[in-house]
Write a structure and sequence with these properties.
CATH topology of the largest domain: Rossmann fold
Number of domains: 2
CATH architecture of the largest domain: 3-Layer(aba) Sandwich
Strand order of the largest sheet: 6-5-4-7-8
CATH class of the largest domain: Alpha Beta
Number of helices: 8
Distance between the termini: 10 Å
Order of helices and strands: EEEEHEEHEHEHHHEHEEEHEEEE
């Protein structure tokens, strides 16, 4: 077991790399990412941004809204946004310090500031996602102008436009949903590691990471590495268990989790990691009241920050 960037320095993701062996001594490598909260920067506080900000916040994006009009850039209009900036777009973008983990949507009023926003964005760090609202004809002309100004064609071609997934959206709420669908698609797109398997869940889990980085007492980590059928959690669900049986995180609750805690206590006593095959037939997930009929493979190993 190896943690990379447990403290999530510079806003970069943390990763847990598991080198496992099953009861037949077959080796497998699994990687569990812990992504920082994704920042969604909306450049423009118009009618599309309002529902988009609300929907995105519900899906755990850290929303930042930028507009140069006080009547559009305020907390009354965007109560769910983590930050609302009223400033010139170029200055606001520079102050926000775009990172490779950000999602940026350029949706300025009447497209008046699109070119100015893109000039600043293309000249700096590239976000994970950059989308531009507008017709194909207009964006083709804009991209041609930017390329003639000397901006990298490869960077320009990475811009998602027309923004959103084609669902025939017409109203501001429908357009917001189409954009959000593309954001979810981009956020969820993860490729398999060359040396193993990347687990499905990649949520931040701040309580767990804080516990692991500050805790000095022995504990074991239990991670769901494979599943089949109906289970209460996806692969990548992770739980820490201390010597008293106290837990941080979850691998699904119910009788199955209780069984994993017992195995984790034994792993702490013996110091020997192990793979547990958990049959959840007729088990009931404690939190959801959901009857499960699937199976999970859970890797349990003593945790060390070293």
């Amino acid at each position: 077991m190896r943690f990379v960037n447990l403290a999530m320095q510079n806003g970069a993701p943390a990763e847990l790399v598991l080198n496992t062996r099953d009861e037949k001594d077959r080796a497998a490598v699994y990687t569990r990412a812990f992504l920082p909260p994704q920042r969604l920067i909306l450049l423009g506080g118009g009618h599309v941004s309002q529902p988009l900000s609300r929907y995105a916040a519900d899906l755990e994006f850290d929303v930042v809204v930028v507009d140069d009009r006080p009547g559009f850039a305020n907390a009354v209009r965007f109560p769910e946004a983590g930050k609302v900036v009223c400033d010139a777009f170029e200055h606001a973008i520079a102050e926000l310090a775009i990172t490779p983990y950000d999602f940026v949507c350029v949706i300025t009023r009447g497209h008046r500031h699109d070119a100015a926003c893109l000039r600043v964005l293309l000249a700096g760090n590239q976000p994970r996602y950059l989308g531009l609202i507008g017709s194909r004809r207009r964006t083709i002309e804009l991209f041609k102008m930017l390329e003639e100004e000397g901006f990298d064609r490869a960077k320009i071609e990475r811009i998602h436009t027309p923004i959103g997934i084609a669902i025939g959206a017409e109203t501001p709420k429908e357009i917001a949903i189409s954009i959000l669908a593309e954001l979810i698609q981009q956020r969820s797109s993860r490729s398999a590691e060359r040396d193993g398997t990347r687990l499905a869940l990649a949520s931040h889990e701040p309580e767990l990471l804080n516990y692991l980085s500050s805790n000095k007492e022995p504990c074991a980590l239990a991670v769901v590495v494979e599943k089949s059928g109906s289970t209460p959690v996806p692969t990548g669900a992770v739980m820490a268990v201390n010597q008293l049986g106290g837990i941080v995180g979850t691998v699904g609750g119910g009788c199955g989790e209780h069984e994993i805690v017992k195995h984790a206590l034994d792993v702490l006593r013996t110091g020997q990691a192990r793979m547990i095959h958990l049959d959840m037939s007729n088990d009931v997930a404690e939190e959801e009241g959901m009857v499960c009929g699937g199976r999970m493979k859970v890797w349990i190993e003593p945790f060390s920050e070293e």
